[in-house]
């Protein structure tokens, strides 16, 4: 009995090491995802910071005809209005970024006081994602197909004969004196 319990404990240790390796791997994957999202955000942000010439209006934009119909003074005035609007919009974006940063910091502080760790958040997110995957239509369909295949194989006459023969061989081997 002790040996069986010892083997089960060894199997548990191996399983827990595999789970720990999985956890480390999944954290690394999550870090990669966060990094790639940040890179994507930087790309989007940096694309928007390029200076655009207002003279580069394409013919299919519908603005060129109206804009070119204006006098040069009106065009300059309109450009100045657009520049002022752009500056105001960029200032609003910066203010929103600052407010969002402050809100994120406040949320992190509240979570820390509540004892919600990053690891716990990650675990909860992972568990909810896995639940969603398990309940998804493709996974349900795959489980049904696997169940049907298993039933078909186990009900096949060849499988029954072979499993019976293997059982007999296993019993014969286990009854042999060592």
Automatic annotation (TrEMBL):
Keywords: Coiled coil. The lineage of its organism: Eukaryota, Metazoa, Ecdysozoa, Arthropoda, Crustacea. Pfam families: TPD52. Belongs to the TPD52 family. GO terms for cellular component: cytoplasm. The keyword Transferase does not apply. It comes from the Eukaryota. This is Tumor protein D52. It comes from Chionoecetes opilio (Atlantic snow crab).
